[in-house]
Amino acid sequence: MNRLERGTYGSTLADVIYQPEQFTPACDGKVNDALINGKATESCYQAAREALAGVDNTNGAIYFNDDHGVVTDGVFYGGMVFYY
């Protein structure tokens, strides 16, 4: 949502999510597969509802990466780091 609000990553949520080389699960079809086959969990839907309602647990971050210690200043969650 932060990237969408910024306006430089696409003008729709789909533009942002399916931007090449950004969100691997979207680009490799795993998101669509989960939705089509009912594999998306309730916690995924809840997180999406919260994000759409304006909840931002990343403090406005627009970048993310696996937490391999390269980025030290950001929000760490679930093995990922979210940062500017």
Keywords:
alpha+beta; 5 helices; three-stranded antiparallel beta sheet; 84 residues; single chain
Describe this entry's structure for a reader:
The protein is built from five helices and three strands, in the order αααααβββ. It is an alpha+beta fold and 84 residues long. The model has no long low-confidence stretch (mean pLDDT 91).
Spatial extent as radius of gyration: 13 Å
Strand order of the largest sheet: 1-3-2
Percent of residues in helical segments? 25-40%
Which H/E pattern describes the elements?
HHHHHEEE
Uncertain ranges: none
User: Mean pLDDT, rounded to whole units?
Assistant: 91
What is the CA-CA span between the terminal residues? 14 Å
Structure summary, number of beta strands = 3
Strand content: 5-15%
Quick take:
The chain has 84 residues and is of the alpha+beta class.
How are the secondary structure elements laid out?
Blueprint: H1 2-6, H2 13-17, H3 24-27, H4 30-36, H5 42-52, E1 63-66, E2 75-77, E3 80-83
Antiparallel strand pairs: 1-3, 2-3
